[in-house]
Amino acid sequence: MIFIDGIIFSLQKSGGISVYFDELLKRLNEGDEHVTHLLYENNNSYTENQCTNKKIKFNISLERFLKVNVVGCKNDIFHSSYYRLPVAKFQGKIITTVHDFTEELYPRGIISKILHLQKRNAILKSDGLICISENTKKDMHKFIPESINIPTKVIYNGVGDFACDNELGAYNPYVVFVGARNGYKNFRMCTEALVSIDDINLVAVGGGQFTAEELCMLNEIIPGRFSHAGFVSEKELEGLYQKALALVYPSYYEGFGIPVIEAMKSGCPVIASRSSSVEEISADAAILINDITAIKIRDAIIELRNNKARMDRIISGLENSKNFSWNKMAIETLCFYNSIRGEK
């Protein structure tokens, strides 16, 4: 029996961790293993397409920190989607996926301290750990050095069914910025890079609607040359990537960076900061910038307007993206479960 604690589907409506567990659940439910998915209802924030054996209503502010009341046999697996543990009477093996150390590197006061303690407790009481990148594993050993003694496997995230179109290399006059836009994500830097390239627009995807402060900044720096695509389907996102001049991904820190691989798979060149896991998963396929600045991003955008430079990045990106798939992630995860169980 595999118990998947689906708390993440009530903690966030969309995001990298919920995508990860959604894709894992799909594949586990297609296999021979018996899977119990504990799905929590909280203002209908759970996704309707989730396979589940049990639904529980709860108070999100409290339940996210409580132990999960499941009882298992010695060969059962408990895998929480967000740093929770089963009750003490659980007899099986505990697996924790470690995604990043954003709260430790960019603390938000008391909430970050609480979340770190929860993460630390889950990690140190696990029988096996999955890190989504070598960089995340390195950060784990830095912030929680005792974890070095726990069996750990690096299993990369996958990417959806993205594909390039038939007009490889053609583009419309815009760059795309995907995801959250706070602080270390460097959204303002991306905007400032377009000041002197007045025929290129900016399309933001996800991350919530523009705030009043962001709108003020955008209207000041690139008036009339920005838009927000909102929350889009995978197919719509694929279309945005396919026609973009580039994905600009200047984040200082990522546990993995799924948009980088999504863009590459769609035939979209990537401009990113040479930092954290982004350098690790990009190989030599992206334009990676040391000590990233708006001027350096601008120069990279101009470079990609050269047909040969653009095609070189597209071809190398398509090749690199073949290394990542959700099927591969699920197979490696199941193999890790079995290794922790002591099965060959």
Which blocks of ≥5 consecutive residues have pLDDT under 50? 43-53
In DSSP terms (H or I, runs of 4 or more residues), the helix count works out at 14
Overall structural class, as computed from helix and strand content, comes to alpha/beta
CATH architecture name of the largest domain: 3-Layer(aba) Sandwich
- How many domains? The number is 2
Mean pLDDT: 91
Q: How large is the share of residues in beta strands?
A: 15-25%
Radius of gyration computed on alpha carbons: 21 Å
Describe this structure in words.
With 344 residues, the protein is of the alpha/beta class. The protein has two domains: 2-158 and 325-341, Glycogen Phosphorylase B (Rossmann fold), CATH 3.40.50; 174-321, Rossmann fold, CATH 3.40.50.2000. It contains 14 helices and 13 strands. α2 packs across α14 (326-341) and α10 packs across α13. Mean pLDDT is 91; it is low at 43-53.
